[in-house]
Amino acid sequence: MRRFIIYLALICISLQGIALERDSLWNVAVEAYSQGEYQNALDGFLALEKEGFASPELYYNIGNSYYNLSGYLAHSVLYYEKALKLDPSNKDARANLEFVHQFTLDKIESVPEFVLITWFKSLRNIFSSNGWAYAALAFLAITAVLLLIFRFGRSMVLRKISFIFAIIMFIFMAVSIVCSLGLRGEIIRDDGAIVMKPVSSVKSSPNESGKSLFIIHEGTKVRILEELGMWCKVELSDGRQGWMLKQEIEII
After folding, report:
1. Measured over all CA atoms, what is the biggest interatomic distance in the chain, rounded to whole angstroms?
2. Is the dihedral of CA 201, 204, 206, 207 positive or negative?
3. Residues in the chain with pLDDT < 50?
4. pTM for the predicted model, two decimal places
5. What is each CA distance from 107 to 72, 89, 190, 216, in whole angstroms?
6. C-beta contacts of 73-77 below 8 A and 24+ residues apart
7. What would the 3-class secondary structure string for the chain be?
8. CA separation for the pair 38, 12 (Å, rounded)
9. Nearest CA among 80, 176, 166, 192 for reference residue 123
10. What was the pLDDT predicted at 154?
11. pLDDT tens-place string over residues 86-140
């Protein structure tokens, strides 16, 4: 038992040391960024990412650092997308992504979605996956309280009102769960990618001899449909498809 406690204490000390080291790296990187030392800030933020730390705030700051260094347009787009993948409600990352998109060469019109799908995505992106999970727990607690009032309330009117509101809260809870799981699924998916090469040729087949269908440039977002060796079949937001080299894109 004593040995177990010692091991547990050592683990806690180790975890605390890692947390302190991460905080130190974060503070140094933030300070460097505030002083306009963008390369030093980027090095610090990337060191945190290399250690396995991931958060919307980290990716947002990496995107900002890349943007302030010339020649890294695709990298800034990539990390703003990473931030939004973890937290679609991050308004700063979304605003910066829209801003840097004006500097990308490819202006691709997306295929129109069914209006209800667009509406649902807009609703879902109000919070992060964790945010919707917390909302679901809150609605569950409210539902439980209302059901208790319905069960033990003395007034018939009060019982009816509590039952009606319990149903409404249950529906809200169900919607919150769906939104949370949907966003969690988006985080797990790895079919989104950003073109990192200045100019890339999308071909009709997965080989160099394939016919060039069209050209895309750095910063363009694609969806990976299929992989074959060192080639990926990708789809643009306007529905065009073709094959390109894996090394020319980076997964979001």
Report:
1. 80
2. negative
3. 3-18
4. 0.81
5. 19, 24, 23, 10
6. 73/100, 73/103, 73/104, 73/218, 73/219, 74/194, 74/195, 74/196, 74/218, 74/219, 75/196, 76/100, 77/101, 77/104, 77/194, 77/219, 77/221
7. CHHHHHHHHHHHHHHHHHHHHHHHHHHHHHHHHHCCCHHHHHHHHHHHHHCCCCCHHHHHHHHHHHHCCCCCHHHHHHHHHHHHHHCCCCHHHHHHHHHHHCCCCCCCCCCCCCHHHHHHHHHHCCCCHHHHHHHHHHHHHHHHHHHHHHHHCCCHHHHHHHHHHHHHHHHHHHHHHHHHHHHHHHHHCCCEEEECCCEEEEECCCCCCCCEEEEEECCCEEEEEEEECCEEEEECCCCCEEEEEHHHEEEC
8. 34
9. 176
10. 84
11. 999 999 999 999 999 999 999 888 877 788 888 888 889 899 899 999 999 999 9
Structure tokens at 190: 């790895």
